[in-house]
Each structure stands twice: as C-alpha cells, then as structure tokens.
Write a structure and sequence with these properties.
The chain is an alpha/beta fold and 295 residues long. The chain has two domains: 210 residues, Spore Coat Polysaccharide Biosynthesis Protein SpsA, Chain A (Alpha-Beta Complex); 59 residues, no CATH class. 47% of the residues lie in helices and 14% in strands. It has a seven-stranded mixed beta sheet with strand order 3-2-1-4-8-6-9, sandwiched between helices. Strands 5-10-7 form a three-stranded mixed beta sheet, with helices on one face. Helix 9 crosses helix 12 and helix 11 crosses helix 12.
Length: 295
C-alpha cells in the first residue's frame, strides 16, 4: 500500500520514523519505511542505527553522498508499494491523522503535496530567526493559496506520488547542492500532464538553519535557479518575473547599483536578531542580478 521514503543527512530521524510507523500501524495498511543515510556524521548514524532492527523499517547507510535528487531516485527504486510518500529527514509530525489524511485521497493518479509548517513560537536560538521568519511568511502557505499555482508552489519535503508515476517521472540529477530541484521536478510533471493537488496536511520543518547557513544555501539555490532557467527546466519563478520587469523598463543596472550600495547594511540586518524578510528578498534580487550580469 504505502512506502514512506526518508533521505537522511545529519539528522536524528527516530522520533519522526516511530511516529509514522505508529500511524501506519493504526491505519491497518501494509507499509514500509525506507531510511537512506546520505553520508551523515557518525554521531547521527549511531543514533539512527537502531531503526535497522524495527519491523517494517529499513535503515541503510550509503557508501557515498548522492545528493538531494539522486537519493530520492534511489529510494523510489527501492520501494515496493504502489504509493510513495517522500518526507525530509528534518520533518516533524504534529497531526495524529497525518497518514490518514493522505490515505483519504486515494486512489489518485497525480501528485499530492501536503505543505510545510513552522512553529508559531520564535526559535530559542536568535541566530535562526531569518530562516524561521522567511519560512513562516513564504513557505507556510494554505492549500487554497498553493493550489492557485500548483506547480510553482510544489516542494519535495512532503508529497505523495503513485509508484507508476514516479517510474515515469523521476528527479533529474543535473543539479548539485541545495535548491530548486523540486521545481525542476514539478515542470517535468507539468510537461507530461500529471496534476499536482495541494491539500492541508503539512509537516513541520524542524531543521532551521542559522542566518549565515541560510544565506549561504540561498546563494547556492540562486545559482541552481539560473542554471535551470537557461536550460528551461524550471517553471517561471517570481524572482525571474521581477527581473524581467526591470529589464523591460531598463532598470536592471540602476537597481543593481542601488542594491550594491545598500548590501552591507542589508546583510548587517539579515545577520541580526531582527532580520527583515523584505530586505532578504532584496538581497536575493541583488544576488540574482549580480550572478546573471556576470554570465
């Protein structure tokens, strides 16, 4: 019936896996939970190894780091039930009906995305405020809101896909590091006419990055975005649309000049305990303009 697939990278997934196993058992369905470790540090492997001795759970340590796309493809190939539920290893289950919410929509021939949520309370570590603020405002969206642009709002942290669909459309493996492999996958689905349905069944994002780490990952993701845009392997993003408007009105160089002057102050704010999401979006625009003008 259901294969739950969890890629692991430097995360303790035991709480997540046990919660999912308990819900699947209560639902009375045949299930398996596959956990593939993608080159984590020894301290995480030592914690997660206990999963290898539990019923319906397969814990495997890979000999090399495959990356975000390749490991999902490997998980999909190893699964043997007709529906695949992909979840990130830094997820948290808060809804006791999480599995049932997905089961209630079966059978379905397309992809179902459940969403992402963040804790309403600010993180205790003030150095993680930026990731939390951005996630709350830009990623923690209702199903109604996400369904307005179903492909653009797809993320790979929490989605259900029939195995026969995943056999037809797998993640492409030409993107390295963090960022936009989920939208690349969404465009592949769109091209072959496979719908994405958004439902209100979010998983909590528990793995907040520090402000510095989040900014570094964002830079890398923008590099991936530009790479995929050139290959026309990604839906049009809001950042691309805004850049095109600037280009149309002949304002690219002027806006880049202004942002370049302001970047030191913007970055000072983003690294503070009271970062602005608006300034973060301007900083992303600057990075995008800087990288596209250099190429």
């Amino acid at each position: 019936m259901l294969s739950v697939l969890i890629p692991i990278y430097n995360q303790d997934v035991r709480k997540l896996v046990y919660a999912l196993a308990n819900q699947c058992t209560k639902a009375g369905i045949p299930f398996q939970i596959l956990c593939f470790d993608d080159g984590s540090l020894p301290k995480y492997k030592d914690k997660n190894k206990e999963l290898a001795f539990k019923m319906n759970i397969n814990y495997t340590e890979l000999p090399e780091n495959l990356g975000r796309s390749r490991i999902r493809n490997w998980l999909g190939k190893a699964a043997y039930f007709e529906y695949l539920l992909f979840l990130d290893g830094d997820s948290g289950v808060r809804d006791k009906h999480f599995i049932k919410n997905y089961l209630s929509g079966m059978p379905y021939e397309g992809v179902v995305y459940g969403g992402r949520s963040y804790q309403k309370k600010k993180p205790a570590n003030p150095k993680k405020i930026l990731h939390w603020k951005y996630g709350m405002r830009r990623e923690s969206l209702s199903a109604k809101s996400r369904n307005r642009q179903p492909y653009l709002n797809f993320q790979s942290n929490n989605f259900l896909v029939p195995a026969k669909v995943f056999e037809k459309v797998r993640f492409q493996e030409n993107v390295e590091g963090y960022g936009y492999e989920d939208l690349q996958y969404a465009l592949q689905l769109q091209k072959v006419g496979i719908p994405i349905k958004h439902i209100q069944n979010p998983i909590f994002h528990d793995g907040l990055e520090t402000n510095v780490q989040f900014m570094q990952k964002t830079k890398k993701s923008i590099e991936n975005l530009i790479f995929l845009q050139k290959k026309k392997q990604i839906p049009r993003t809001r950042l691309q649309d805004f850049n095109d408007k600037l280009k149309y009105f002949g304002l690219q160089s002027f806006v880049f000049f202004l942002l370049q002057k302001c970047v030191p102050l913007i970055e000072k704010n983003l690294l503070s305990t009271r970062p602005s999401v608006i300034l973060f979006n301007l900083w992303k625009l600057f990075i995008y303009l800087d990288k596209t003008q250099k190429k």
